[in-house]
Predict the 3D structure of the following.
Amino acid sequence: MVVRAYQLQVDWDNNGDFIGTYDDITSDVLSVSFRRGRDYASQLTGNSSAGKFTAILNNESGKYSPLNASSVLAGNILPARSVRFRTGASASFPYTFPFNFSTEAQDMWMGKLQTIAPKPASTALATCTLEAYGALGFLNEFMPKSTTETNIRTDQAIGAILDAADWSATDRTLAEGKTTMTRWWTTDQSTIKALRLVEETEAGFVRESYDGKIVFESRETRLNPPYNASIATFSDAGGATHSYMALRQEDPLGTVVNHVEAVYRGYTFSYFANLWTLGDTGADSPMLTPNESRIWIASYPNTNSPNDAIEVNAWHDLVATTDYTGNLAADGSGNNMTTYLDVTTAKTATQLIIEVTNTHTTEDIFITLLKARGDSVQGNDPIIVQAVDSASQAIYGDRMHTAATEFIPTHVQAQSWCNYHSAIFKAPVPILTMTFNANVSQNNMDQAIARDISDRVTIVAQNKANLGINSEFFIENISHKIDQGGTVHNVTWMLSPAIGGYSQLWKLDQGILGQSMVPSF
């Protein structure tokens, strides 16, 4: 048997590989823990969340102390360095195990370094804590801005958000969305919030892959291979091929939602409107010295916008003397110098970034007029649609959920969105958290390494667990804890039901009669 082990690497040189002299830090690892997936195993209320990786390292030499100038890593212990943890590598952590991981290296977690915190000790071992975050955490440091897009699919909007954050096209896997948004934009919000709004519109899922990519699943992704069939069975029966240590069922009553609301709204357009004007005029007119550049940011909506203003359909290019004027005198009484002003712009859905440069070599120029025109968008009165299950309310009371997205394209689709989620959540659904020991058998180890988010597994809890469960579930969150030199390796999965409508639209030739009868939308 070929025996392989774990490996932890950091791209200290930030050159895109893990082959630097000090990149392999496996020999200093004391323990690791890492996770990725939803923050709660519910398609409706569980959110995409950034993965997290934590490692405790031996720091007796001060190698991982960021302020230690004599460290071989001095100057390279910086945020956003790539971190990779995998199995199948020849280095051991810190010794090999009696299980065959594979002859090939297999990534288990990849992300970006966040912090390294040393923990000196006078008598005990000096250690440090390395923390890294997944792709979503890294992206969340950006505030993506977009122009207004029309008739754009949800996956295309996800791609636009990732483009705005300079996330490589090779580091994403996007399923084709099933919803086309009539209008969409993003501005002045975190990347994760922008992604979640599109995710909710689709009733899909944005997640991180084991090798650090961004993955977008449409609402039909799990209807198709490999997600439409159970891959493994974990059971509480004696002699089971795959066994678990602990199984917890979340309060099923807490999963009930029997009153679902969503909003659709139409739009009104105002063409060639004055959307922003520089308020400094006369004696306060700003002055540019020769070759000086200055930036102004025109925002809409602003304090002068109508209450129903939402965004800008299209900013117009600035026209000399109509939208901007330069003069030798602050009050405009001098020679017109507009021809010496070079104006460039950058456009988003709510901002026009204007850069003005005085190209004259000797004269100061006053900006006596600067304004921005465009086609503004006002939102019509919102149409609120809802789906209410009165039979469920009679049993469980009124349990309401309101969609946060404003991009559902039609009131018909908004109604279908509500109907879909009401049909799924009007009765309690089983949400499980299962923990198993990867080191107990080769079978368990294989599952610990191979399983991914959205994989479908069967859980049997009819014996010692006494939960009366024998059904299929989707993996929504994966976490690992590896300690004591690797002799302890516990894996925890958060699981959502795959049968009975939950995450299971009814689709011709694929729905299971009597089990998946929630129509697609």
Summary: Helices lie at 135-139, 154-164, 191-202, 390-396, 411-425, 442-450. Residues 411-425 form the longest helix (15 residues).
